[in-house]
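Lipoprotein
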Amino acid sequence: MSHNLLKLIMIVMVVFIVSACGKNAEPEISHGQHSTKNGDLQETTAAPDKLPSFLNKYPETTKIVYQLAAQNKDLMKWIPCYCGCGEEAGHQSNLNCFIKVTKSDGTTTWDDHGTRCATCMDIAIKVAQMNKDGRSANEIRSAIDGAYSKGFASPTQTPFPQ
């Protein structure tokens, strides 16, 4: 994915998502989906390359960010989120804003939290770009911590890369 495309995605996401994380109206739930205590909608698919159906109503840019999260899941588990989802939703990293878990058989449980949160989306895009640029997990973690340590919610309790 080109640097310019990632910049475009970031700009479009800011336009589409003008509010920070928060509770919206109750999500519409279909077969295979369930809602969590905090109102997040979750859906399980057969693999991380199979996006959840709840994304069907969102712009293509949202789907791309979810794809980026799946493609970078091994890195994103080391990156905290700064939107407050650690306390509100029990998330452990920015990955959990998009993917709750990927089991050993590839089965992936997705979370719709990221669809409503510009902070979550922005962090995921920055992580993907820095990873593409060849930065290490520790460098990316330090950059995200530095960029979001002031003016944002407390970070998730995410361990440092090993």
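thats it. Residues 3-18+47-148 form one domain. Residues 49 and 70 are 7 Å apart (CA to CA). bye
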